[in-house]
Write a structure and sequence with these properties.
Distance between the termini: 118 Å
Shape: elongated
Helix content: 10-25%
Largest sheet: 5 strands, antiparallel
CATH topology of the largest domain: Immunoglobulin-like
Number of helices: 1
Radius of gyration: 34 Å
Number of domains: 2
Number of strands: 10
CATH superfamily of the largest domain: Immunoglobulins
CATH class of the largest domain: Mainly Beta
CATH architecture of the largest domain: Sandwich
Length: about 180
Amino acid sequence: MNARRLFWKSSILRAMATRRIFTFVLLLAGFPLLAVGADQRNGRKYTPPPATATIKVTVLRSTNGKPIPNAAVVFHPMEGDKDKGALELKSDEDGKVTIDVIPIGDTVRLQVIADGWKTFGDDYKIDTDSKDIVVKMKRPGEQYSLYGDGKGTSTSTTTPKGESNSAKPSEQTPLPQ
């Protein structure tokens, strides 16, 4: 009697397991058909995204070729003369940035901003699946001012940050009181 009960239970379990597996297979087979039918009813067709390029930018000092970490590298995808937005990344300790969302065939305006360096900017046509760009940053030079020396007499130049062309403190003229 005990053997019959065990056989009955095991055959019931087998039948239930077989039914569950069969139902699962039917459901899996039916889902793609439902998705195809939904697309045809709504008139929607799948268009794959455009192929993208991997762009690697390396930011270096022009003086000694060492990397500049934490530089802001800004990608501006261009459509004609219109800017389609901006993507900003920071360079790592090796001065490198990698991005892979710009479609092949687009033009990207690259801008690099680093503290203590001249801002760099240039346009690049992305026509292959990978592009390596090396940016050599320069120190800022003297800045030209149309406003003169503050007295309205002539134009003047200012010196870059960290450099000085002023007199020593003992040679400076005191401010009027």
